[in-house]
Write a structure and sequence with these properties.
The complex is a heterodimer of chains A (about 475) and B (about 300). Chain A has helices spanning about 1-20, 25-45, 70-80, 95-105, 120-125, 140-145, 175-180, 190-205, 220-225, 230-235, 250-265, 280-285, 300-305, 350-360, 360-370, 380-385, 415-425, 430-450; strands spanning about 55-60, 85-90, 115, 130, 155, 160, 165, 170-175, 210-215, 240-245, 250, 290-295, 315, 330, 340, 375, 400. Chain A has a 5-stranded mixed β-sheet. Chain A has a 4-stranded mixed β-sheet with strand order 9-12-8-13. Chain A has a two-stranded antiparallel sheet with strand order 5-6. In chain A, helix 2 (about 25-45) packs parallel to helix 3, helix 8 (about 190-205) runs parallel beside helix 11 and helix 11 (about 250-265) runs parallel beside helix 17. In chain A, strand 1 (about 55-60), helix 3 (about 70-80) and strand 2 (about 85-90) form a beta-alpha-beta unit. With about 475 residues, chain A is of the alpha/beta class. Chain B has a single domain (about 55-250, about 260-295), classed as MetI-like (MetI-like fold, Orthogonal Bundle). Helices cover about 70% and strands about 0% of the residues of chain B. Chain B is globular. The chains are: A alpha/beta (about 475), B mainly alpha (about 300). Chains A and B meet through helix 1, helix 4, helix 5, helix 9 and helix 17 of A and helix 4 and helix 5 of B.
C-alpha cells in the first residue's frame, strides 16, 4: 500500500512540475504587469498634484520585451513627475498580442495606449480600435515627425494614428572567424559569392558541424521576409514581390533569388534541419559558432548581448545583391509606428499627455543609444550617439538605407509565396510556372481587395528604387 | 401539483449551469460558424454574404485536401501504433507485476504533461544538428550522416511517434479499467479447463473487453483526426506542408498571426473549413460506430 501511494505521489509530483513548466507564456506578462501594478499603486499614494482627486488611471499594453526595464523606468518617472495626476500601468504581453488586443476591445476592456507595429496597425485601424491623433499634433511635432508620416503606415484615409520612433535595418549576419578560417576576406557582395562562400565554409567546417548558411525555414515566409526582402530592395526591386511601377505583383525578381537559395540547399551548404528551424534555435547555433552566415534584423546585436551571449567574432554587413551591384536601397522596416491611443479610451487627453512624454527627445535618444531600436526620426538621429552594443555598427542607418512605400498586404487563395518558393527550393518543379501562378493568385487577391476598398494602389512608373520616397 | 412545480424548479436550478455553459460555449459558437461559412469576413467591417463561394473554394483548395490526406496518414499511423501498444501494456500491468502502480503512473504521465513541454523536449531529441537521437545513432556507428528527422522525408514519422508517446498511457488506463471489470472466475474456469494464456486472452479478454474497446477506439479515432497541437509546435505543418493536418490548416486560417508576417484572418472561409472538417470526422466516427456495432453485443 505504501509503495502504491509512493508511486502515485511521485507521479503527481513530477507531473505537476512538468505541467507547471508549460505554463502559458502570458504569465510573464502578468507578472510584469503585477510588478508594475505594485509600483503604480505605490506612486499613486503621493501624486504631485491634486492629491485629493483620484488619479487618472491609464493602461499601456506592449508586446516588446527587450526594452521593458527601460520603459518601466520611464513610466515610473512619468507617474512620479507628471502634473496631471496621471498614473500609467504597464502590461507586457508575450505571445498572441493581437488576439489579446482583439479580446480586450470586444469586451470593452481595451488599454488606453497601445504599442503599434507595422504588422498590426492597419488591422487595428480597420477594426476601429485607434483614435486619430491629428487634433493633438502641434506644429512642432509635425515639423519633427512630418517626414515620417506615411500613408498606410501611420496615416490611413488622411488620419494620423501614430508617430515614428525606430526602425529595423536588415543585414547579412556573418561569423568573421569562420570566414577567415575558410579563407574568405569579405562578406559576399553578390548572390553567386554568397553561394560560393557558403560552399567553401561547409567544406572547411562540416567535420566540426559548421555549415555555410541557415535561415529559420520553419516559417518560410518569415525566413524570406528577413532575407530576400533585403536582397531585392538593395538590388532595385520591392522586397515582397510587389512592383511599385506597375502596381501589380511580379515575383520574377524573387524567383531569381530563390535559384541561388536552391543551389545552396543542393550543395548541402545549409545547416541540416533548417527546414524546421525557428529563429531562436538558429541564433543559438550561430552563437555556438556553427553557422557561417544568415540574414536578419537589427535586433540581432541585442539578442547576442542578452539572450545568447557569445564569444564569436561576428558582424553585420549589407546584404548581397543579385549581381553585386547596388541599384536600390536597403529597406528600413517596421518604421513609422510606436504608440497609439485607443478609440475606446475614456481618457484620451491623458493618453496623449503620456504619449507626448514618451515621444520626448530624451527618451527617444536614450532608446536608440541603448540599442533597443535604430532611431529614424531625423532630429533624434542628429543628436543621438551610437549604441554601445557589439555588432550594432554594422546595422546603423547609412547611405544605402531608406524607407520604402508600403506594398499592399493581400491574402491569396492557396499557398503564400514563402511556402510556394520554399517547396521549389526543396522539391524542385517548374519555377516559371510557380512564379506565374503566384502572380496570378496575388494579383487576383489584389483586385478583390481594391474592389472591396480595403487597399488602394497607385502605380508609379517613375518610381526610383535608389530614392524610394521620391 | 405544488410538489411537481417544486421539483421542476429544483431540476431547472440544478441544470441551469450546464445549460447556460453548453449554450454559451457549445451551441452559440456552432451557430456562429454555421452562419459565417456563407460570408466573406476577416473579423472587422461588415461581413459580405457570398453564398456557397467558400465551399466552391474549398473544393479547389489543394492545400486543404493535402491536409486531409496528411490527417489520414497521421491518424492511421498513430492508431496503428497506439492501440495495440496500449492494450499490450494494459494486459501486462493488469497482472501481478512488481512495481505495477509506479509503471502505470509513469506511462500515464505524458497525458498530463503540457503539449508545449513535450514538443520542446522532442524537438531537442530529434533535431538534425544536435539532436540526441542522431548523436546516439552516430556514436553507435549505425549512421554516418545525421538523419533529418524533421525534414520532408521523416517529419510525419517523427510527429506520429511523438503522438504515440503522448497517447499510449491514456488508452492504457482506459483498457485497464475495462480489464479490471472482467470477472476473475472466468479465467479460473478456463484455466481449469486447460486453456493457456493465449487462448484465455483470445477467448475471454478480447470479447469481454469489446464494449470498452469500442469506446476507446472511437475516442482514439476522434483524438487522432483532431490532433494538431504538438505538430504546430514541432514543425508548424512543414516542411513544405508534409505534416500539415486539417485542424492545423484550420487553425492557421483563424489565427494566422503565429507564422511570420501577418496574414489576414479568414473567419468566413475558416468556418467553411471548420464545417468540412467536422463532417469528415463525424462521418468517419459514424462509420466506425456502424461497423463496430457487434463489439457492443456480448454473445
Amino acid at each position: 500500500m505504501r509503495r502504491k501511494w509512493a508511486g502515485i505521489g511521485l507521479s503527481l509530483a513530477v507531473a505537476i512540475g512538468l505541467a507547471g513548466c508549460g505554463g502559458n507564456d502570458n504569465n510573464s506578462g502578468s507578472s510584469n504587469s503585477g510588478a508594475t501594478n505594485g509600483q503604480s499603486a505605490e506612486n499613486t499614494t503621493t501624486p504631485p498634484a491634486e492629491s485629493n482627486k483620484p488619479p487618472v488611471q491609464l493602461k499601456y499594453w506592449t508586446d516588446d520585451r527587450h526594452d521593458q526595464e527601460y520603459i518601466k523606468d520611464m513610466i515610473n518617472k512619468f507617474n512620479e513627475t507628471n502634473e496631471d495626476n496621471i498614473q500609467v500601468e504597464l502590461t507586457v504581453m508575450s505571445e498572441n498580442y493581437t488576439q489579446s488586443v482583439d479580446i480586450a476591445f470586444s469586451s470593452k476592456q481595451a488599454p488606453d495606449v497601445l504599442r503599434l507595429k507595422s504588422g498590426n496597425t492597419a488591422g487595428f485601424v480597420k477594426k476601429g480600435y485607434l483614435e486619430p491623433i491629428d487634433g493633438f499634433l502641434t506644429d512642432d511635432i509635425k515639423a519633427e515627425f512630418g517626414k515620417l508620416i506615411l500613408d498606410d503606415v501611420n496615416r490611413f484615409d488622411g488620419k494620423v494614428y501614430s508617430l515614428a520612433n525606430t526602425g529595423n535595418t536588415l543585414r547579412l549576419v556573418y561569423n568573421k572567424d569562420i570566414f577567415a578560417k575558410a579563407g574568405i576576406a569579405n562578406p559576399p557582395a553578390s548572390l553567386q559569392e554568397m553561394v560560393d562562400d557558403a560552399k567553401k565554409i561547409t567544406e572547411v567546417g562540416k567535420a566540426d558541424g559548421i555549415y555555410g548558411f541557415a535561415l529559420n525555414f520553419k516559417s518560410p515566409k518569415s525566413a524570406f521576409d528577413r532575407s530576400i526582402r533585403e536582397i531585392l530592395s538593395l538590388s532595385g526591386y520591392q522586397g515582397l514581390g510587389f512592383d511599385l511601377k506597375t502596381g501589380q505583383f511580379d515575383f520574377a525578381p524573387y524567383s531569381q533569388v530563390i535559384e541561388y537559395f536552391k543551389t545552396m540547399y543542393e550543395d548541402g551548404s545549409i545547416l541540416p534541419g533548417a527546414e524546421s528551424l525557428d529563429i531562436d534555435p538558429l541564433r543559438a547555433q550561430f552563437a555556438a559558432g556553427k553557422i557561417g552566415m544568415y540574414l536578419s534584423f537589427s535586433t540581432e546585436p541585442g539578442v547576442y548581448q542578452d539572450q545568447f551571449p557569445t564569444d564569436i567574432d561576428w558582424a553585420g554587413a549589407l546584404a548581397p545583391t543579385l549581381d553585386g551591384q547596388i541599384k536600390g536601397t536597403s529597406e528600413i522596416v517596421s518604421a513609422g509606428t510606436w504608440l497609439g491611443i485607443s478609440a475606446q479610451s475614456a481618457n484620451k487627453e491623458a493618453a496623449w499627455t503620456f504619449m507626448k512624454y514618451m515621444y520626448g527627445d530624451e527618451i527617444l535618444k536614450t532608446y536608440h543609444e541603448k540599442g533597443f531600436g535604430l532611431a529614424v526620426v531625423p532630429s533624434i538621429v542628429e543628436q543621438a550617439g551610437n549604441p554601445e552594443i557589439n555588432g550594432m555598427e554594422g546595422f546603423l542607418v547609412g547611405e544605402h538605407d531608406s524607407l520604402w512605400p508600403v506594398s499592399p498586404s493581400v491574402t491569396p487563395e492557396g499557398a503564400n509565396y514563402g511556402d510556394a518558393f520554399f517547396k521549389y527550393m526543396l522539391a524542385g518543379g517548374d519555377l516559371a510556372a510557380i512564379t506565374q501562378d503566384l502572380n496570378a493568385r496575388y494579383n487576383a487577391a489584389l483586385s478583390q481587395a481594391v474592389e472591396k476598398g480595403e487597399v488602394a494602389v497607385t502605380p508609379n512608373p517613375a518610381f526610383d528604387p535608389a530614392n524610394p520616397q521620391g | 401539483m405544488r410538489l411537481r412545480w417544486k421539483r421542476l424548479g429544483e431540476n431547472t436550478l440544478f441544470l441551469s449551469p450546464s445549460i447556460v455553459l453548453t449554450a454559451a460555449l457549445g451551441v452559440y459558437p456552432l451557430i456562429w460558424m454555421l452562419r459565417y461559412m456563407f460570408y466573406d469576413y476577416a473579423g472587422y467591417g461588415s461581413p459580405l454574404f457570398v453564398g456557397l463561394d467558400n465551399f466552391r473554394r474549398l473544393l479547389r483548395d489543394t492545400l486543404f485536401w493535402e491536409s486531409v490526406g496528411n490527417t489520414f496518414i497521421y491518424a492511421g499511423g498513430k492508431l496503428l501504433l497506439t492501440l495495440p501498444l496500449s492494450l499490450l501494456l494494459a494486459v501486462l500491468l493488469n497482472g501481478k507485476l512488481r512495481g505495477g502502480n509506479l509503471l502505470r503512473g509513469i506511462y500515464f504521465m505524458p497525458t498530463i504533461i503540457s503539449t508545449a513541454v513535450i514538443s520542446v523536449v522532442f524537438y531537442t531529441i530529434f533535431n538534425s544538428y544536435n539532436g540526441m537521437v542522431n548523436a546516439a545513432l552516430m556514436k553507435l556507428h549505425l549512421v554516418s550522416q545525421p538523419i533529418d528527422w524533421l525534414g520532408p522525408k521523416h517529419a510525419m514519422l517523427t510527429v506520429v511517434l511523438v503522438a504515440v508517446w503522448g497517447a499510449v498511457g491514456n488508452y492504457m488506463l482506459l483498457f485497464l479499467a475495462g480489464l479490471q471489470s472482467i470477472p476473475n472466475d472466468l479465467y479460473e474456469s478456463a484455466a481449469i479447463d486447460g486453456a493457456n494464456a493465449g487462448r484465455r486472452f483470445w477467448n475471454i479478454t478480447l470479447p469481454m473487453l469489446a464494449p470498452v474497446a469500442q469506446l476507446v477506439v472511437m475516442l482514439a479515432i476522434i483524438a487522432s483526426l483532431k490532433g494538431y497541437e504538438s505538430i504546430m509546435l514541432i514543425t508548424e505543418g512543414g516542411p513544405i506542408g508534409k505534416t500539415e493536418v486539417m485542424y492545423l490548416y484550420l487553425y492557421k486560417l483563424l489565427f494566422p498571426v503565429s507564422t511570420g508576417s501577418p496574414v489576414e484572418q479568414q473567419l468566413g472561409y475558416g468556418s467553411a473549413v471548420g464545417f468540412a472538417t467536422a463532417v469528415i470526422v463525424g462521418t468517419i466516427t459514424g462509420l466506425y460506430f456502424l461497423l463496430s456495432r457487434r463489439m457492443n453485443k456480448l454473445d
